[in-house]
């Protein structure tokens, strides 16, 4: 009689947990699922804390409601699967701003992650070139070509559009520079249309038309009670055995699957399983792959990461604009790269006493030295810069929190998608029961990570040759 499958999920972030839920839903009954998490906390960058007596996100804040096709996003589908659909709420204020010349200006509409489809609409914040986006007789990029977002936009619209619009928009997501980030990975919809359209404005408009959104439909959502409720519900639904503070130090192929070496060197635990979902960042993944799959390890190990700090202040009755927050171009010379007015943006967080939660993101790729400052110094600098941008002194905070995320945000250089595809091809050829999942491979954002974990789970089911339920 065949024994139940044993599947290890290495990494307890949302990608790993989504994989565990999908395995529970689709793998044969009795499948044994174990999640190994090196730290003591599950959820990865999804972490809800408390500040001034109410929940506050210490990591990811929200998720996209729709995927690029216009269908329900994987994050919404997972929330529905976990019985959390009635907890989804949307921003009550959607307008954000850019810091330009020290002051706030509304982010112009009609752009795709800052790349304009109509140059006239962005003149309030930047002076675009109007002579370079011409039809050269062929598509903007070749069928297999990947370029940096910054290089493409600079060549068509000039430096100011990149520095004042695209760079802060991408920097708010990746903490990186547009000149270093892959078009294919960070803006896949634009990459697809750029392979057909002859102008960048045409490519932006085509990408926008390919993913229409109903007027007034919410773009983002979050959960009442915080995103940690998604983590907790996923753990429960997966029925997995969860091993916290359990570092997997080695993966060794066996005749029937894999042997995991878990725990400290002086007292290792050896665990045999049939398959592994490897849902950890690229660098630890490369270390684990170095023995069984050196070619895959080499491809995966090229990915670099940026570190950030999130500084949240609880401020009594401040004079805040009716904005969800603002983004800061690096040319402004501020430590802050983005700020969110939580209690303005999210109506369910507003308090009758007027206490406001304001969160600032600090740290850009290549500027990690700024993050070496003590927490108190970061908080003081953030308070001073917020006051300067708002043009009025903020009241002294009554509470605050500094959350540091070392090596948190992948930096997808051009060619990233090809490198990941090569790694996965090498893995499938040698070890079909070892599958990669997570932001290091497929992109950032909760929906992308959820989909990545679910896809990995489906691959494991197929590799083990069982019938999915």
Automatic annotation (TrEMBL):
Biological process GO terms, please?
heme biosynthetic process
Location relative to the cell: Cytoplasm
Q: Which GO MF terms are attached to this record?
A: oxygen-dependent protoporphyrinogen oxidase activity
Q: Which residues are in the Amine oxidase domain?
A: 14-461
Catalysed reactions listed for this entry? coproporphyrinogen III + 3 O2 = coproporphyrin III + 3 H2O2
This protein's pathway: Porphyrin-containing compound metabolism; protoheme biosynthesis
Which keywords accompany this UniProt record?
A: Cytoplasm, FAD, Flavoprotein, Heme biosynthesis, Oxidoreductase
Q: Which cofactor does it need?
A: FAD
The record's GO CC annotations read: cytoplasm
Protein's UniProt keywords contain Protein biosynthesis: no
What family classification does the UniProt entry report for this protein? Belongs to the protoporphyrinogen/coproporphyrinogen oxidase family. Coproporphyrinogen III oxidase subfamily.
Function of the protein: Involved in coproporphyrin-dependent heme b biosynthesis. Catalyzes the oxidation of coproporphyrinogen III to coproporphyrin III.
The name on file for this protein is Coproporphyrinogen III oxidase
Encoding gene (name): hemG
